[in-house]
Design brief:
Chain B: InterPro entries: 2Fe-2S-bd_N, BFD-like_2Fe2S-bd_dom_sf, FAD/NAD-bd_sf, GcvT/YgfZ/DmdA, GcvT/YgfZ_C, GcvT_C, GCVT_N, Sarcosine_oxidase_asu. Chain B: This is Sarcosine oxidase subunit alpha family protein. Chain B: Keywords: Oxidoreductase. The structure holds three protein chains of three kinds. Chain A has three helices and eleven strands. Chain A is α+β, with helices and mostly antiparallel strands. Chain A folds into two domains: 92 residues, Probable tRNA modification gtpase trme, domain 1 (Gyrase A, domain 2); 68 residues, 2-Layer Sandwich (Alpha-Beta Plaits), CATH 3.30.70.1520. By secondary structure, chain B is α+β, with helices and mostly antiparallel strands. Among the domains of chain B are: 112 residues, Roll (Ubiquitin-like (UB roll)); 189 residues, FAD/NAD(P)-binding domain (3-Layer(bba) Sandwich), CATH 3.50.50.60; 113 residues, FAD/NAD(P)-binding domain (3-Layer(bba) Sandwich), CATH 3.50.50.60; 70 residues, Arc Repressor Mutant, subunit A; 44 residues, no CATH class; 135 residues, Beta Barrel (Elongation Factor Tu (Ef-tu), domain 3). Chain B is built from 23 helices and 50 strands. In chain B, the strands form 13 sheets. In chain B, strands 8, 9, 12, 13, 14, 15 and 28 form a seven-stranded mixed β-sheet that branches. In chain B, 55% of the residues are buried. The model of chain B has no long low-confidence stretch (mean pLDDT 94). Helices cover 18% and strands 37% of the residues of chain C. The longest helix of chain C is centred in the middle third of the chain and has 8 residues. The chains are: A alpha+beta, B alpha+beta, C alpha+beta. Chains in contact: A-B, A-C, B-C. The structure holds zinc ion. The site of zinc ion has 7 residues of chain C, from loops.
Chain lengths: 181, 979, 90
C-alpha cells in the first residue's frame, strides 16, 4: 500500500464561475491558531513579528500579506495562514494546528459583494469593510470567517466538513446575482 | 378605453396575455388591471363570502377585489393583485372564487341568502350539535372559504434573502420621498430609496401636477436620474418595506424577476431584504378611502384616485360615462382630469353643501349623495339624492372619494398607536413610534405636493444633522401646487341596504352596527366578530370608516374608539419568500466526514446526527434487511476487527497553566491527576445537577489536553466551556479551541485491531507501551497523527486520528486491511448495538433528566473538589434510591422483541401511566447474545436485579416479560477491552 | 434586533445565542445553602422593563456578553464583556 493521499476540502465542488464572480478554493499553507496566554498578547505579537514579519492583528483586522497572513479569528485568537508557526511563539500563546480544519475559498469579481450580501449579515461594502478587514460571522447558516483581500476579492473560511454546503450556497447566490444582469 | 397620447406606457411594445381564457393585448408599463380596464373589462373577481361580482377598486397594493391566479401546474400562484401585476407576453390569469365561471358563479346563491349570513353568522350557526363541527361544518366552511388555491406541488420558483445596510432608508418615492433622497444624497449620505411600484414618483405619475414647471412624471424622472448618478445612493423599485423591527432593521420584499419564461436561469422571483438603517424616513403616502352606500361594490365603482391613476399613468378611461362622488376638494380633480382627456363626466356629486367646484362641463350637485347603484355584473346606473329630490344617472363608472388615510402602518409595527387629526379626519403617525424613523409627506397628513416636497427635504435635513452630515447649501426647494385639503367626514350614506366597508371580507355597515348592538364595542372585538380588516388588505381601504361607524354606534369619539393593531407584513408576503433559501438542502448545512464519499460508494444509507451525516450500515450483496448488515458488522468487531468513522465527536484542544483546573471544575471527576499519555472518561453536569455530556479526555502534555464530547453536544459543550471560563473562572489562564474539523478519527475495534494497526503505523504498538486508556503521537508513512486506546464497543480497540486531508485515504486503507482480516467497516446501527451490549450510555440515556446517581456514576463525583452541578446534584430528591435508575433488561425466554420508549411495570398490575415504574431508552437485537436487550430506567432498579417485570410499548403494542440485569451484557469484567 | 458586541461591533441578532438572566454570573459558594442555590439555578424574575441578560456571540468572536435591555421598549442600554464583569468582581 502506498502513502496516505491528501484531499482538499472543496475537491469536486469548486471552482465555480457564474456571471462575473469566481469562487476558487485556495491552499493557504499551514493554519495555526494563536491564542496568547493571559497578559502575553504583546509578547506573542513581538515573537510573531520577529519570526514571520507581522504582529498579531487587532480585532476585526488582518496583518501580513499573501503567503503569510495573520487573521483575527475571535476573542483572543488569530489564525496564522502560510508558514508553520515558529515555536518561539508557543512560549506566549497556545498554538493549535488547524491546517485541515477549514475550507478556504476566494470569492472575486465585480459582483462578489452582492453575492456575499445574500449570505453574510454584516455590511461588507468597501466603505465600511476595507481591504484587510475581517469578520467572524455567519455565511448563511454556517459560522465562518470573511476577509476582504481587495476591491473585488474576499477570503472565506468555513469548517471543512461544510465545504459542500458552502459551494452550494455560493452557487445559488452567484446564480441569483448573475441572473439580475 | 385607451386615451391617445396619455400615460406612461410604451405603445411600441404590445404584450399579449390572457384573462379568463380570452386573449388581450396590452402595453409595456401596463398592470393587469390597467390592461383589462383598457379593454373595457370591469368584472375581475368574486367576493369572498357572498360571491358578489367585483371589479378593480384601486390602483395599488391595497387592492381588495381584483385578485387573480396566474401560472399553471406547479407554478400556479393565487391571490396576485391585478393592480400590482405587470403584464408580460404569455401571462395567463384567471379569476378566483368563481365556479363554473366568473360571470355565472354558483355560490352567488350566498348573496341571495345574505340576511342569514351577517356578522356572527358562523359563531351562531355552527355551534351545535357538537359532533357536526368536525364532520360537517368545518369541511364545509373550509371548502367555501379561501380565495385562490395552491397547486399542492413544489413551486419551481426560487426566492432568496439578502442583507442591505445604509445610513438613510427612504421608504416611498413620491414628492416627499424624492425630496428627502435628493437632500440626503446631495449631502453625501449613504441613501437607500425603496419604492413599492415599478416606477419612482408615487402620485406624481398618477396626477396632472407640475413640479418646477415640469410635468410630475418628468420631474420625478429627472430627480431619479440625478439620484442614479450619485454613488452614495441606491435605488430599488418593486420593493415593498413590509415591516419595521428593532434597532433600525426593516424587512422588504423585492419582486425581482418577471414572471414565467422571461426570468433568466437561476434568477429569483423575489428577494426578502433585511435592511439595517441608521435612520429611516417613511414617505409611504396615503390611501384613498371609499364611501359606504348601498351596492357600492359593483364593478365600475372605484376610488377617485384610482380613476385618475388609470387615466394619467396608463392612459385608460375607466368608463365611457363617469360620475364623481366625494366629500373633499381632491375628488373634484377627477372630473377635471377626465374632461380634459375628453371622457364624458356625467356628474360631480359632493356631499358638502358649500363647495367651490372647478370649471366643468358636467352638472355639479352639492349637498348630494349617491344612495345606490344598479348593474349586476357591472355598473349601469347610480341613484343620487340631491337637495331637489332623487335622480338616477346612467354611468358605467363611479369615482368615489371619502378622503385620504395616511399610510401609517409601519409606524405601528413596534406597538405605536396613531393619533387622530380631526382637521383631515384621519389618523397620522405618532412621532417616535419607531426609533430612528421619521415620517414625511402624505403619510404624515401633508396633502399638497408642495407640502410633501418641503416635509421630505426637512426630514432629510434633520436626519443629516443626526448623522453628522451637512445639507449642501443653496439647494432650492422645488415648487408645486399647494392647494388646501378640505374635507367633511362622510363614512356611510344613510340607507337600509347593504353598504360595503371591507370589500375583501364582505363586511357591511350593518355588520359593524350589529357588532355594537351585541356589545362587541371594543374595536378589537368588532374586528374579530365581523372579520372587518382581517383579509389580506388588512383593512387598508376600510378600517378607518369601520371604526368611525363603531364610534358612532357606541356614542364615542373616534380617538376613544382607537384603531386595531397594524402588524407586519404591510403587504402580503408569500411563505415561500419568508422561507427563501431554506428549502431542500438549503435548510441546514450538511457536515460531511472525510469518509462520506467512500460510505456512499459502498451503498451505505446515511442518517443525520445533528448536522452530520453518518453511515447506518454497509449493505453487502444478498442482504435484504438492515439487520443482516448490522449483525454482520457487530460480528466483525466481536470476532475480528471493525472500522468506524468517529470524527463527528466533538474534540476540544485545551492548553495553558489553568487547563487542568478548568477540567476539574467542569467534570465531576479529576483530570489534574491524569498522567500525560493517558485518557480518562469524564462526566459533565449542568449546574442543576443533571448530566450534560460525557466523553474521554486525553492529556497530551503537562498543560495540554484534548477533550472529546458526544456528537450531539459538541456545540453546547463548547459554549459551556466558554461560559465557565469567561464568566465563572476568569482567573484561569487557559485557551481552548475546537479541533473537531482538524482530525479525521477512526475507531479500529476488535480482537484483531492491534494486528491491523501493526504494519500500518510506522511504529508497532503492544500492550505494554499502549495499554488500555493510553494515548500519544504516532505516524503513518511519516504523516503524524494521534492514537488513543479507548473503546466504545468493549473490545480491544483504538481510535486513530490523522489530519483531515488524509481521512478518506486512511479510511480506505483501514477498511481494506480489516476486510483482509475477516472484518470491515461498521456503521451507526452496529455501533449502537455494540455500545448497548457493553452498557455504554449515549444521549438516549443522558437525556436531560438523569443524574450521575441514576446512571450508577455517583462515585464519579469527586468529594475533594467543587465542580459544576455538584451542589445541586446532592439534593435529596436527586439521590433518592426510589428514583428511576439505569438497568439492563433481557426478555425472559429470549424470544420477545424489546423497543425503546416502552414502559416498565410490576407483573400483575394494570399497565397504565400511573403504575409505570420506568421506561426503556435503548433496545436492540444482540447478535452476540442471540436475543433482544435493552437499557432502561427503573425505580429502585439496582435493588431489583434478577426480578422479572413487564415491559409494554403502548405505541407499538409490544409486550414482554423481562428480567432486570446489570446494564453490561457483554464482558462485564472488561477483560476483552484490556487484553 | 441588533446587539453591539464590544469586540466585533453591531451585529445581527442571529449571530448570538441567548442564555437568560445575568444572575448566572453570581455563582454561590458550594456551601451557600439550599436557598442560595435554588435562587441561583431556578428562580428568575420576569421584569417588564430593564434587565441584565447573558448572550453569547456564538457566530462571532465567542465572547459571553452582559446585555442590559429593556423588555418593554426593546432598547439596549449597554453591552459588556462577561469576562470583564466577572474579573471586576474578584
Ligand atoms: Zn463578538
Amino acid at each position: 500500500m502506498g502513502e496516505l493521499v491528501g484531499t482538499s476540502p472543496c475537491a469536486g465542488v469548486l471552482p465555480l464561475t457564474i456571471g462575473d464572480v469566481q469562487a476558487v478554493e485556495v491552499e493557504l499553507g499551514h493554519l495555526t491558531s494563536i491564542a496568547p496566554f493571559a497578559g502575553q498578547a504583546t509578547a506573542a505579537s513581538v515573537a510573531l513579528e520577529a519570526a514571520h514579519g507581522m504582529p498579531l492583528p487587532k480585532a476585526n483586522c488582518t496583518t501580513g500579506k499573501e503567503g503569510a497572513r495573520a487573521i483575527w479569528f475571535g476573542r483572543d485568537m488569530a489564525l496564522l495562514a502560510g508558514p508553520t508557526c515558529d515555536p518561539a511563539v508557543a512560549k506566549h500563546a497556545a498554538l493549535t494546528d488547524q491546517s485541515d480544519a477549514w475550507a478556504a475559498v476566494t470569492l472575486s469579481g465585480p459582483s462578489a459583494e452582492d453575492v456575499l450580501a445574500r449570505l453574510v449579515p454584516v455590511d461588507l461594502r468597501s466603505v465600511s469593510f476595507k481591504r484587510g478587514h475581517t469578520a467572524r460571522t455567519l455565511l448563511k447558516h454556517m459560522n465562518g470567517s470573511v476577509t476582504r483581500l481587495g476591491p473585488e476579492s474576499f477570503l472565506i473560511l468555513v469548517f471543512r466538513s461544510m465545504a459542500r454546503t458552502l459551494a452550494h450556497d455560493l452557487k445559488e447566490a452567484m446564480e441569483a446575482v448573475a441572473a439580475r444582469g | 378605453m385607451r386615451i391617445d397620447g396619455k400615460g406612461l406606457i410604451d405603445r411600441a411594445q404590445p404584450l399579449r396575455f390572457q384573462f379568463e381564457g380570452i386573449g388581450h393585448t396590452g402595453f409595456e408599463g401596463d398592470t393587469l388591471a390597467s390592461a383589462l380596464l383598457a379593454k373595457g373589462v370591469r368584472l375581475m373577481g368574486r367576493s369572498f363570502k357572498y360571491h358578489r361580482p367585483r371589479g378593480v377598486l384601486t390602483a395599488g397594493s391595497e387592492e381588495p377585489n381584483a385578485l387573480v391566479t396566474i401560472g399553471r401546474g406547479a407554478a400556479q400562484e393565487p391571490n396576485v393583485r391585478a393592480t400590482m401585476l405587470e403584464i408580460y407576453d404569455g401571462l395567463d390569469a384567471r379569476a378566483q372564487n368563481a365556479w363554473p365561471s366568473l360571470r355565472a358563479d354558483a355560490m352567488a346563491i350566498n348573496d341571495v341568502a345574505w340576511p342569514f349570513l351577517g356578522a356572527g353568522f358562523y359563531y351562531k350557526t355552527f355551534m351545535w350539535p357538537r359532533g357536526f363541527w368536525e364532520r360537517l361544518y368545518e369541511p364545509l366552511i373550509r371548502r367555501a372559504a379561501g380565495l385562490g388555491a395552491l397547486s399542492g406541488a413544489h413551486h419551481p420558483d426560487r426566492s432568496e434573502k439578502a442583507y442591505a445596510f445604509c445610513d438613510l432608508l427612504v421608504i416611498g418615492s413620491g414628492p416627499a420621498g424624492l425630496a428627502a433622497a435628493l437632500t440626503a444624497g446631495r449631502a453625501g449620505a449613504d441613501v437607500l430609496l425603496v419604492e413599492e411600484d415599478s416606477l419612482f414618483g408615487g402620485r406624481l405619475n398618477a396626477e396632472t401636477f407640475e413640479v418646477d414647471g415640469l410635468a410630475g412624471p418628468d420631474w420625478a424622472a429627472q430627480t431619479v436620474a440625478e439620484l442614479r448618478d450619485m454613488e452614495n445612493v441606491r435605488l430599488m423599485t418593486r420593493t415593498c418595506v413590509v415591516g419595521a423591527y428593532d434597532h433600525g432593521t426593516y424587512a422588504a420584499v423585492e419582486r425581482v424577476g418577471p414572471h414565467g419564461a422571461r426570468r433568466p436561469e437561476g434568477g429569483v422571483a423575489e428577494t426578502f431584504w433585511r435592511i439595517v438603517a441608521k435612520r429611516a424616513i417613511l414617505a409611504a403616502g396615503a390611501i384613498e378611502r371609499p364611501v359606504a352606500f348601498e351596492n357600492n361594490d359593483r364593478p365600475g365603482i372605484m376610488t377617485a384616485s384610482a380613476v385618475r391613476a388609470y387615466l394619467n399613468r396608463w392612459g385608460v378611461a375607466s368608463g365611457q360615462r363617469v360620475a364623481v362622488f366625494g366629500n373633499n376638494d381632491d375628488a373634484h380633480r377627477t372630473a377635471v382630469d377626465l374632461e380634459a382627456a375628453g371622457v364624458e363626466v356625467a356628474a360631480l356629486i359632493d356631499s358638502r353643501a358649500e363647495i367651490a367646484p372647478p370649471d366643468l362641463n358636467c352638472p355639479v350637485y352639492a349637498g348630494a349623495m349617491v344612495t345606490g347603484s344598479a348593474g349586476r355584473l357591472g355598473l349601469k346606473r347610480i341613484s343620487v339624492k340631491t337637495g331637489r329630490g332623487n335622480k338616477d344617472i346612467e354611468v358605467d363608472c363611479l369615482a368615489m372619494s371619502g378622503g385620504w388615510n395616511p399610510t401609517v402602518h409601519l409606524t405601528c409595527h413596534m406597538n405605536g398607536r396613531p393619533t387622530w387629526r380631526a382637521d383631515i379626519a384621519s389618523f397620522v403617525p405618532t412621532p417616535g413610534s419607531i426609533p430612528g424613523l421619521v415620517t414625511a409627506g402624505a403619510c404624515n397628513g401633508d396633502f399638497s405636493t408642495q407640502a410633501c416636497l418641503k416635509a421630505g427635504a426637512e426630514a432629510a435635513a434633520a436626519v443629516l444633522k443626526d448623522l453628522g452630515l451637512k445639507a449642501s447649501g443653496g439647494a432650492r426647494l422645488a415648487e408645486a401646487e399647494d392647494s388646501p385639503y378640505r374635507i367633511a367626514p362622510l363614512w356611510a350614506v344613510p340607507g337600509t341596504g347593504r353598504a360595503w366597508l371591507d370589500f375583501q371580507n364582505d363586511v357591511t355597515v350593518k355588520d359593524v352596527k350589529q357588532a355594537a348592538v351585541e356589545n362587541f364595542r371594543s374595536v378589537e372585538h368588532m374586528k374579530r366578530y365581523t372579520t372587518q380588516g382581517m383579509a389580506t388588505d388588512q383593512g387598508k381601504n376600510s378600517n378607518v370608516a369601520a371604526l368611525a361607524l363603531l364610534a358612532d354606534a357606541t356614542g364615542r369619539g373616534i380617538p376613544e374608539t382607537g384603531t386595531t393593531t397594524f402588524r407586519p407584513p404591510f403587504s402580503p408576503v408569500s411563505l415561500a419568500t419568508f422561507g427563501a433559501g431554506a428549502q431542500g438542502i438549503g435548510f441546514a448545512p450538511q457536515r460531511l466526514t472525510t469518509s462520506h464519499g467512500e460510505s456512499i460508494a459502498r451503498g451505505a444509507p446515511m442518517i443525520e446526527a445533528g448536522l452530520w451525516y453518518r453511515p447506518s450500515y454497509f449493505p453487502q450483496k444478498g442482504e435484504t434487511h438492515w439487520r443482516q448488515s448490522c449483525d454482520r458488522e457487530v460480528g466483525y468487531v466481536r470476532k475480528a476487527v471493525g472500522v468506524c468513522d468517529v470524527s463527528t465527536l466533538g474534540k476540544i484542544d485545551l492548553q495553558g497553566p489553568g487547563a487542568a483546573e478548568l477540567l476539574d471544575f467542569v467534570y465531576t471527576n479529576t483530570f489534574s491527576t491524569l498522567k500525560v499519555g493517558r485518557v480518562r472518561y469524564g462526566l459533565m453536569l449542568r449546574e442543576d445537577g443533571f448530566v450534560m455530556d460525557d466523553g474521554t479526555t486525553a492529556r497530551l502534555g503537562d498543560q495540554h489536553y484534548v477533550m472529546t464530547t458526544t456528537t450531539a453536544a459538541a456545540g453546547a459543550v463548547m459554549r459551556h466551556l466558554y461560559f465557565v471560563h469567561q464568566a465563572l473562572c476568569p482567573h484561569l489562564d487557559v485557551r481552548f479551541t475546537s479541533v473537531t474539523e482538524q482530525w479525521a478519527q477512526f475507531a479500529v475495534a476488535g480482537p484483531k485491531s492491534r494486528e491491523l494497526l501493526n504494519g500500518l503505523l510506522d511504529q508497532p504498538v503492544d500492550n505494554e507501551t499502549w495499554p488500555f486508556m493510553a494515548c500519544g503521537d504516532m505516524a503513518i508513512g511519516g504523516i503524524p497523527g494521534r492514537l488513543f486506546r479507548i473503546s466504545f464497543s468493549g473490545e480491544h480497540a483504538y481510535e486513530v486520528a490523522v489530519p483531515a486531508r488524509y481521512g478518506e485515504s486512511l479510511f480506505k486503507r483501514l477498511v481494506a486491511r480489516a476486510e483482509a482480516m475477516g472484518g470491515g467497516a461498521y456503521g451507526m446501527e452496529a455501533l449502537n448495538v455494540l455500545r448497548i451490549e457493553k452498557g455504554h450510555i449515549t444521549h438516549a440515556e443522558i437525556h436531560g433528566r438523569t443524574t450521575a446517581f441514576d446512571i450508577g456514576f455517583a462515585r464519579m463525583l469527586s468529594a475533594k473538589k467543587d465542580c459544576i452541578g455538584k451542589t445541586m446534584a446532592a439534593r435529596e430528591g436527586l439521590v433518592d434510591p426510589g428514583r428511576e435508575r439505569l438497568v439492563g433488561l433481557k426478555p425472559v425466554g429470549g424470544d420477545s422483541v424489546l423497543s425503546a420508549g416502552a414502559h416498565l411495570f410490576d407483573t400483575g398490575v394494570a399497565m397504565t401511566r400511573e403504575t409505570s415504574l420506568g421506561y426503556t431508552t435503548s433496545a436492540v437485537f444482540s447478535p452476540t447474545l442471540g436475543h433482544h436487550i435493552a437499557l432502561g430506567f427503573l425505580q429502585r432498579g439496582p435493588e431489583r436485579m434478577g426480578e422479572v417485570i413487564r415491559c409494554f410499548d403502548h405505541m407499538r403494542g409490544l409486550e414482554a416479560e423481562v428480567e432486570v440485569c446489570p446494564p453490561v451484557f457483554v464482558d462485564p469484567d472488561g477483560g476483552r477491552t484490556r487484553g | 434586533m441588533r446587539l453591539t458586541c464590544p469586540i466585533c461591533g453591531a451585529r445581527d441578532r442571529r449571530e448570538f445565542y441567548y442564555q437568560g438572566d445575568a444572575v448566572a454570573l453570581d455563582r454561590p459558594a458550594p456551601g451557600a445553602g439550599v436557598q442560595a442555590w435554588d435562587d441561583y439555578v431556578h428562580l428568575r424574575d420576569n421584569p417588564a422593563g430593564p434587565r441584565r441578560e447573558l448572550w453569547h456571540h456564538e457566530a462571532g468572536c465567542g465572547a459571553w456578553l452582559v446585555v442590559e435591555r429593556n423588555t418593554t421598549t426593546h432598547e439596549v442600554h449597554g453591552v459588556t464583556l462577561a469576562m470583564a464583569v466577572a474579573e471586576a468582581r474578584r
